[in-house]
Amino acid sequence: MTANREIDDILQRAADGGRITPEEALLLYTEAPFHALGEAADTIRRRRYPDNIVTYLIDRNINYTNVCVTACKFCAFFRAPKHKDGWSHPMEEILRRCGEAIDLGATQVMLQGGHHPEYGVEYYESLFSGVKQAYPQLKIHSIGPSEILHMAKVDGVSIEEAILRIKAAGLDSIAGAGAEMLPQRPRKAIAPLKESGERWIEVMTIAHRNGLSSTATMMMGTGETHAERIEHIRMIRDCQDLAVANGYQDTAVEAALEVGGFRAFIPWTYQPENNHLKGRTQATTMEYLRFIAVSRLFFDNIAHLQASWLTTGKDVGQLALHLGVDDLGSIMLEENVISSAGARHRSNLHELIWMIRTADRIPAWRDTLYNHLAVHRTEADDPTDDRVVSHFSSIAMPGKKQLPLVDAK
Ligand code: SF4
């Protein structure tokens, strides 16, 4: 109970599984006492996941190019076409990294890159089909609406044709990057050349309609208002309402797991190094944690909520497990985009499992669709591979020292 009857009623309704309005979400975000907010969000997690399991994933983010024509102000990863530090990896290098990832237990790869002026649908078809042919067991959870719009524009085809072709080539799931902030004012301020938020939603809707499910992300802390953060999740919830109402699930498995449309929501915090936007407006830890809880209360139609230990730090990631989060995301065998902008937090398989267990949750290794691959009920069930650790930028930048992903020792 809090001192405010209106807030109590909203928290209770949300905790009971009822829907809250964007205005109510904003009130909770700005006014609700922290502990009451967290308790209500965790009530939802416990009802959704009474087994008390919190999942993690082993995957690798592999970048095919850093060349990009979109020049987002917050991005420290891209280089303009013809820049001396621009690069593209050949297929053999991408496949080598996939093979290395599989050796370390990865079940998924996230192929990410810039909007290269010459990369149309055909490039992505050969990228996805090349990976699928070499490693059919790997799920390809990659790219976002921005890349789909870019490739469709390069080749002069419709969004739907681009989606159908890359799905047929092997794309299993859209990663939902490029959402950043969907409302127009903050989006224009940080990514003036990117598609509008409405267009991002439109591409996701077409993908969901064609049986390609996704996750949804949000980058907070670039100067947006509290109300704009809530508007971002309002746009995603409305899009998911369409997916649920129309049964846009690809398979019986997806329908059973409630993972058609958006399977998960993943907010993370802006990193201010090496870009044109720089610092000063980053989200605080409390803003992030409060938003995590509000997201769990607001998204009555999205199954999973993921904490971002990469950008917020491992302590904050672990705290988020008490605010409605049921997934700690990936160990990230390789990550070069967010780490280029300053994210320094690294982890390893043992530590990720320890973070979940010491939060009084049961750790489980999952796949892309959140099927449990192994449940570590006791330490005797824990994996023993010491090689499964996070690696950042140094290994992906040609011209810099190349560190081997797997330690030779
Ligand atoms: S965020 Fe993506 S689209 Fe924007 S500049 Fe970076 S690589 Fe390009």
TrEMBL record:
Protein's GO biological process: menaquinone biosynthetic process
EC number, as in UniProt: 1.21.98.1
Cofactor: how bound: Binds 1 [4Fe-4S] cluster. The cluster is coordinated with 3 cysteines and an exchangeable S-adenosyl-L-methionine.
Keyword Amino-acid biosynthesis: no
Catalysed reaction equations from the record: dehypoxanthine futalosine + S-adenosyl-L-methionine = cyclic dehypoxanthinylfutalosinate + 5'-deoxyadenosine + L-methionine + H(+)
Keywords in alphabetical order: 4Fe-4S, Iron, Iron-sulfur, Menaquinone biosynthesis, Metal-binding, Oxidoreductase, S-adenosyl-L-methionine
Residues that coordinate or bind (3R)-3-methyl-D-ornithine: 308, 330
Cofactor section: [4Fe-4S] cluster
GO molecular function, one term: iron ion binding
UniProt superkingdom: Bacteria
Binding site for S-adenosyl-L-methionine: 74, 180
Annotated InterPro entries: Aldolase_TIM, CofH/MnqC-like_C, Cyclic_DHFL_synthase_mqnC, F420, FO_synthase_su2, rSAM, rSAM_sf
Pathway: Quinol/quinone metabolism; menaquinone biosynthesis
One Pfam family, short name: CofH_C
CDD domains, alphabetized: Radical_SAM
Radical SAM core domain span: 54-303
Function: Radical SAM enzyme that catalyzes the cyclization of dehypoxanthine futalosine (DHFL) into cyclic dehypoxanthine futalosine (CDHFL), a step in the biosynthesis of menaquinone (MK, vitamin K2).
NCBIfam families the record matches: CofH family radical SAM protein, menaquin_MqnC
Protein family membership: Belongs to the radical SAM superfamily. MqnC family.
Protein name: Cyclic dehypoxanthine futalosine synthase
